[in-house]
Design brief:
Blueprint lengths: L5 E3 L21 H11 L3 E5 H22 L4 E7 L11 H16 L3 E4 L10 H17 L3 E5 L9 H11 L4 E6 H6 L4 H4 L7 E6 L10 H7 L11 H11 L5 E3 L4 H4 L3 H13 L3
Parallel strand pairs: 1-2, 1-8, 2-3, 3-4, 4-5, 5-6, 6-7, 7-8
Helix pairs in contact: 1-11, 2-3, 4-5
Length: about 280
């Protein structure tokens, strides 16, 4: 059991839904998911934008906040903003998502909003990206939240070092990194390197595990074959120690993505995700 708190990221409670599918919405209602997370012991909850839209139709933002509070979920994570590096264009769908998530973050008292890199790995300019990231971080700060960029080993921000280079260049104190240990392990980043990350630049951490060998593409492997914490090849005790050395004290996100996990009833899936992560902390 940990006193630092565990946050169930969006996919951990989403049931039969996955990234990259035509419709990423969870087939489960938010109440069922929040109750499962709270009952398992989680004190935080992640919500994907399409699921936020559905839940807002049912409960309104005030109702969502009450639902989280009723289930002891005090740490709220919202995702995912993409295409932020092209600046604000008032008539684009991407900007509508951006503005909606900022509004929701303020209403829900969210601790942070996640943003993504360019998954097509196209050429990019640090100065341009840093300026746009700083502007978005300032907007998140105004909403009472932080902004975390999640680096991905198949994107233009492949490693923790790439992500840190961006957030340091941006310079805004509300901006930082989401460190998913799946991505650091697949990028070959040693725990000792994680210990050197400035604690002020860590916005969130996500725990999970995986087999030593990648099957298929990195994206296929991360979506279909993640393992519960402690059931794969990662040196999670070493990684956790390194992140604590860097200054991270939680809440620790738990992001389990796999065909096996999606097939389980949400209460069972959520309980397993909590129990295996808490055992390491």
């Amino acid at each position: 059991m940990t006193t630092e708190g565990l946050l169930a990221t969006c996919w951990t409670t989403a049931g039969d839904a996955e990234p990259g599918s035509g419709d990423e919405r969870s087939p489960l209602g938010l109440r069922e998911r929040a109750e499962a997370a709270g009952a398992a012991g989680f004190t935080g909850f992640g919500l994907l934008y399409p699921d936020l839209v559905e839940a807002e139709r049912t409960y309104g933002l005030a109702g969502i906040r009450s639902l989280f509070e009723d289930n002891g979920l005090r740490h709220v994570e919202l995702e995912f903003i993409t295409d932020w590096w092209n600046g604000v264009s008032r008539d684009t769908a991407a900007d509508a998502v951006r503005r909606h998530l900022l509004t929701a973050a303020e209403a829900l008292g969210a601790r942070h909003i996640k943003v993504g890199p360019d998954v097509e790995d196209r050429p990019w300019e640090l100065d341009v990206w840093a300026e746009e990231f700083a502007a978005l971080a300032a907007q998140a700060d105004e909403a009472g939240a932080r902004l975390g960029v999640e680096f991905l080993p198949w994107s233009n921000l492949k490693t923790v070092h790439d992500g840190l280079r961006l957030v340091e260049a941006a310079g805004h104190p509300a901006g930082g990194l989401i460190i998913d240990v799946w991505h650091t392990e697949r990028a070959g980043t040693a725990p000792a390197e994680l210990a050197k990350v400035p604690g002020s630049r860590i916005v969130g951490v996500e725990l999970d595990d995986a087999d030593a060998v990648v099957l298929g593409t990195l994206f296929e492997d991360t979506v279909r074959r993640r393992r519960l914490c402690g059931e794969g090849s990662f040196d999670l005790p070493g990684i956790i120690t390194a992140l604590r050395t860097a200054g991270w004290s939680g809440p620790w996100g738990v992001e389990i993505l796999s065909d096996t996990h999606r097939a389980l009833p949400v209460r069972e899936a959520t309980q397993k995700a909590y129990r295996t992560a808490a055992a390491l902390l």
